[in-house]
Structure formats: C-alpha cells, structure tokens
Design brief:
There is one protein chain. The protein is built from 12 helices and 8 strands. The protein is α+β, with helices and mostly antiparallel strands. The strands form 2 sheets. A 4-stranded mixed β-sheet has the order 1-4-5-8. A 4-stranded antiparallel β-sheet has the order 2-3-7-6, with no helix packed on it. The longest helix has 29 residues, at 270-298. The chain is globular and about 70 Å long. The chain binds flavin-adenine dinucleotide (FAD). Flavin-adenine dinucleotide binds at residues 126-130, 135-136, 160-162, 354, 357-358, 360-361, 363-364.
C-alpha cells in the first residue's frame, strides 16, 4: 500500500478560505435544495458560476481552458461543496472523470472541442457502462458498435445511467469485437444524437436522475471514438479509479452530520457524543486517505487498488454513520417535512443502501483489493 500521509500547504489553505468565503455568499442556507454529496441537485447556472470562478475542470491544463491546478486543489473545492450539500449534479461527472479521460485518451481535436466547455461548467457528462446483463461483470457489455460504410453503428441499452436526462454528453463503453476485454471501446455520444432515447427510472426517494438509455442504430463518425479501438477496458478502469478514491465517497452525509453535531441532541447526550467522536475519528482517517490518493494522482499514478480500498471502507462508514444519526434522532423522519434537514435525513435513509452499489459493489471492490495486494 502506498498511501503516504500528507497535509495541506499554506497555498492550499488559502484556496480553502477563498472557496469558503465564496460559498458563504453564493449558497445562502435555504436558497437551494440540500443534496446528498455527488447526487446534489442539477443546477446548470450554479455549475457555470463555479466554472467562472475557475473551480470546475481545475485539474485540466490551462491550454484547454482548465485551471492547471492539482487533484489536491480540486479536492479542497469539492470538500467545501459537499459539506454544504451544494447543487453539483450538472458538472459532477465531467469534472471528476470525463474531462481527465478525454485529456489522457482523446485526440487533440476532441480535447479542444470538449475540455473548455467542461471547464466552463457548460457540458455535463453521464457514464454509460452498466447494462441490463452487465453490472459487476462489466466485460459482458453487449451494446455493439460496428464500423460500416464510413460510420459507427451503435445498438443496445445502458441502464442505471445517472443524470442522463440532463447530460449534454454520454461517455459509453461499447463492444467493437468479441475479445472479452480487448473487444471494448469508449465513445463520446452527444445526448441529442438521433436514435438515442433516454427514459428516467424513478428512484426510491422520488427523484428522476436515474435513467435507461436506448441506442437504436445510432450513427457516429469516427471522431466520436475515445482512444484506440479495443482500448476501452483499460481506459474505463483508470476512470473508475478517479470515481472511487475521491471524497465524494464519504461525504454524502456531511450536511446531515454537520447539523446533528451542533444539535441539542448531541449537546445533551453522552452516548450521542461518543458516537459523534467515533464518526469524526473515522471521517478524519478517510479524509487523509483521499488526500493521499489525490497526491498520487498528481504524481501521475492511477491508484486503482487504493481507490477501491477507500471506497470499500468509506461507503460502509457512510451507511453506519447515517444509522447512528437516525438512531439518535429518535423518530421517523418525513420526506415531506418542512425542515429541510429532516427531509434530507429521510431521503438519505431511503437511498443509503445504494452507496455501496454505485461505482462498483463492496464484493467487487474486495476482489480488486485482494488481487491487487497479492500482486505487490
Ligand atoms: C445510485 C446508483 C448510480 C449508478 N450510476 C451509474 C452510472 O452513472 N453509470 C453506470 O454505468 N452505472 C451506474 N450504476 C450501476 C452500478 O455500477 C451497478 O449497479 C453495479 O456495478 C452493480 O451491478 P448490478 O446492479 O448489475 O448488480 P450485479 O452485478 O448483478 O450484482 C448483484 C450482487 O451480486 C454480487 N456479485 C456480482 N458479481 C460478484 C462476484 N464476482 N463476486 C462476489 N459478488 C458478486 C454484487 O456484489 C451484488 O451484491 C449506478 C448504480 C447505483 C445504485
């Protein structure tokens, strides 16, 4: 394991202060729907405002409109956003992983066409990996891309595609030949391409960000292909490292924890204080691990095993800390409560089980960790 303990530099702390000051004004409590981490509300205007601050696409190079900053600096901004339950849903996936994937694997034309819009907070990406018969076993992807008469012809169905309804682009994994792993290729598909149909799958908390995406003989030119034909599996694995190791894996409950920590329920109860201490100790450890992963990314590494390790532990932590808050709250929270905090608690209880599924289930992560560590 190569997670080296690290702390913030003076410049990084100055950035943290700037972000806090900006968000204190931009996100006044009660003026926006409180969100649960990366599943925050979709608000294109907020994403554009953040882009104008230079806080979207921060880790992309300046020549492509990015901030030329580090993964650690991005983490600092992200921590502040998630602590406030900010409406980050529109730009989240593009900022976290699609932009970097395009930077590393795209052609110069693709970088120039897509990265500046991502950094401005104007482009929104959804990830089309899972299919009805390919989830944990992603190599079973059946949606097919065939090169014929000078175009790629795409047919198939993607499922559980978060935010596909509001995304401008879909970054998808399709089968281009029979090879289990080397027969997969990634494509960037504008969502309004003829033949693409997006249908919402109602989520248990009443939100409609979850989708099924059908491709019916969708035609794409070769410049929609991301990376070499057959290179999709490796690109997808690197992308998953970005998706798994970040702070968004343990910060969904932050707005809930923040207010609970300051509540009378904790002030007046020793058992609640003990549980709060338990939560904070673990939270601090996961924060250190995510920070170390960000430093590894900055050194040019894609720490696949470390990211899986953080996700395995931190998503279980999120569920356990939610259970503690729920127990100390003492009554059943209502989704329709006038108190936004109570309504958020009710939503978290409903959607919490999905935290250990999205981005790879706990069982799959454990396999990645054990196989990866045995090889070292
Ligand atoms: C909130 C949410 C958002 C999501 N967003 C997206 C998205 O934007 N894009 C996208 O492509 N997908 C998305 N997904 C899908 C997600 O990646 C899959 O649900 C996940 O990979 C599991 O696949 P599955 O649902 O097909 O379950 P299955 O793969 O059928 O697994 C079912 C159960 O069997 C276990 N299992 C399966 N194989 C093994 C094995 N080899 N060893 C041990 N246990 C095993 C699993 O751990 C699980 O408990 C999202 C899912 C959720 C819940």
């Amino acid at each position: 394991m190569i997670l080296v303990p690290t702390t913030l530099t003076a410049e990084e702390r100055a950035l943290q202060a700037d972000v806090r000051a900006y968000l204190d004004e931009r996100l006044l409590p009660g003026t926006y729907p409180l969100g649960l981490g990366m599943a925050g509300d979709v608000d294109p205007a907020f994403s554009r405002d953040l882009g104008a601050q230079g806080w979207v696409g921060m880790a992309l190079p300046k020549e492509y409109g990015g901030g030329g900053r580090t993964a650690v600096e991005r983490q600092i901004v992200v921590e502040e956003l998630l602590t406030r339950g900010a409406p980050v849903g529109f730009h989240w996936t593009a900022d976290r992983q699609s932009g970097l994937n395009i930077l590393h694997n795209g052609t110069e034309e693709q970088r120039r066409a897509l990265l500046p819009g991502i950094a401005r907070g104007e482009l929104s990406f959804a990830i089309g990996m899972s299919e009805p018969d390919a989830g944990s076993d992603l190599a079973s992807v059946r949606s097919i891309a065939t090169w014929k008469d000078g175009a790629w012809h795409i047919s198939g169905t993607k499922i559980w595609t978060s935010n596909a309804m509001t995304a401008t682009h879909l970054l998808c994994l399709f089968r281009t030949s029979d090879g289990r792993h080397d027969g997969l290729t990634q494509f960037v598909v504008p969502r309004d391409t003829p033949g693409v149909t997006v249908a919402p799958i109602p989520f248990i908390d009443g939100t409609r960000h979850f989708c099924e995406v059908a491709f019916e003989d969708v035609r794409l030119t070769d410049d929609a292909r991301l990376g070499e034909v057959g290179a999709g599996w490796g690109q997808n694995t690197s992308e998953l490292a970005l998706e798994r190791g970040g702070v968004d894996r343990w910060m969904s409950t932050m707005p809930l924890l923040e207010r609970w920590a300051r509540s009378e329920g904790v002030r007046d109860s020793v058992p609640a204080q003990v549980d709060l201490g338990r939560i904070l100790a673990r939270l601090w450890a996961y924060r250190g691990m995510s920070l170390s992963i960000a430093r590894l990314v900055d050194s040019g590494t894609f720490p696949v095993v470390e990211a899986a390790l953080v996700k395995e532990m931190a998503t279980l932590f999120e569920q356990e800390s939610l259970a503690l808050v729920r127990r100390h709250y003492g009554r059943t929270p209502s989704l329709t409560s006038d108190d936004p905090w109570e309504a958020l608690l009710a939503r978290a209880i409903l959607v919490g089980p999905s935290w250990t599924l999205r981005g790879g289930t706990t069982e799959i992560l454990r396999t990645i960790i054990s196989k990866g560590l045995i090889k070292r």
